Amino acid sequence: MHDAYEPVPILEKLPLQIDCLAAWEDWLLVGTKPGHLLLYRIKKDAGTNRFEVTLEKSNKNFSKKIQQLYVVSQYKILVSLLENNIHVHDLLTFQQITVVSKAKGATLFACDLQLTSSGEERLRMCVAVKKKLQMYYWKDREFHELQGDFGAPDIPKSMAWCENSICVGFKRDYYLIRMDGRGSIKELFPTGKQLEPLVAPLADGKVAVGQDDLTVVLNEEGTCTQKCALNWTDIPIAMEHQPPYIIAVLPRYVEIRTFEPRLLVQSVELQRPRFITSAGPNIVYVASNHFVWRLVPVSIASQIRQLLQDKQFELALQLAKMKDDSDGDKKQQIHHIQNLYAFNLFCQKRFDDSMQVFAKLGTDPTHVIGLYPDLLPSDYRKQLQYPNPLPTLSGAELEKAHLALIDYLTQKRSHLVKQLNDSDPSTTSPLMEGTPTIKSRKKLLQIIDTTLLKCYLHTNVALVSPLLRLENNHCHIEESDELIILYEKKGLHQKGRVDNNQSPEQIHTVWTKYVDMLNSGFKPLLEKKHLNSMCPHTLSILMTYRSNRSAGVTLSHWCEL
């Protein structure tokens, strides 16, 4: 857990009971049970979390309690549910513009701003009148019927737009109504044991739907889009989406979580909170019957520091991407966090996931190879730095890690071979700042090919021959001698890659003579008699390999087999 928000009191001990909230920009609207509508201007002091709160207008002309408020700042109107009807007022003067006469008896409404193909915003409204749903759109300062009424199975208790659908919560079940001209209705699932269903719109056009202390996310088809439901510590009363956070009002406090990764971020104790509303990104108000608080976001930089300490790299990455694009360090910080994330995946032994992230980053392949034991020469390996101690790998776990590395190196090798003749130096980046990188593409290919040989010997020796036969392989001649020793040590002559006419005893004798010769220090390639006694298959591999390579610096300089 970390601190994402700080609660700051805005209104305290308000004498009138609060029944609903709405906000936009620097303005806060408070609807009260006696029917008073209060308009406050909220100005934040620069550099502090203090606010100057001014009551700009108090309208006592609403004769009964204000049941629901919705601000449409784009049209400068206030839509409200008063005396079971839909009223529209001017946003600043509170002068009444229109009343939707057909909506008499309304108990609930939901508005949605839809972006049309021409780029204009279109206001749509769904109104619950007893067991019917009425659809409207806003034009020329009044609401017009969008289409015919829908018959509902019960009286709606909660609803929200979901793209071209409306998710409706009734007393016992949730339904999805498609705005496809036919009004097709899809039954979703029961509401659970909670007294009131809860449907909340999300910033991406989906809806969050509550079932007791669980919340699932649905798209306009009614399909759940998250692998797992959010599990709250109590039953939410209301919810507000402030990406990457989802904020829920619970009976005793406000709880802040994330959908992906699924985390409990923060619990904020407040005195009997009931309502929550937003004036846009980073402006959130929570209210009880007589108090209003503002949830002020902790700076992104501070949150990222906390998250990196807690190794919550996925959430830190989401926040880093939300930083102002003018921040010159943004790109570098994102790259740094991605490297830390990939490293952490490796430490969690999620090798495939780790290699996939590294593959996208352009991290120096030698720094990735250095995560594994005994693949780099000790002198070079000592120059590499990592954020934390590396995990100890052995047995099946090490083999799984090697297989992931093979996929990564094969991809990097293909990319490097295509750029081999480019005059510009390689542009790999370090896993940790200040760690040296390899600029020469040829040296990188030497290291990659040698590492692939070692990995194949650990995992799948059948791939050794195809690698050695490549015309552009970058394993040097001297390495073939050491490779043969490894072949002998691994007993590869028993694995079927020999001439079928030779017995295992004959092959073993040939290899033993050759290994003895190498161990005695005799290193011209092979005497003719040894070549003649080799099986055709093995001889073919060695001769093809040697004919394709010219003399050069041995890879032993980089990788000790």
Automatic annotation (TrEMBL):
Residue ranges of every copy of the CNH domain listed in the record: 15-283
Main subcellular location: membrane
Gene Ontology cellular-component terms listed: cytoplasm; endomembrane system; membrane
Keyword entries, A-Z: Membrane
GO annotation (BP), single: endosomal vesicle fusion
Membrane topology term: Peripheral membrane protein
InterPro entries, per the entry: CNH_dom, Vam6/VPS39/TRAP1, VPS39/TGF_beta_rcpt-assoc_1, WD40_repeat_dom_sf
Cellular compartment(s): Endomembrane system
Keyword Membrane applies: yes
Family under the similarity heading: Belongs to the VAM6/VPS39 family.
Name of this protein: CNH domain-containing protein
Origin species: Sphaeramia orbicularis (orbiculate cardinalfish)
Gene designation per UniProt: LOC115413934
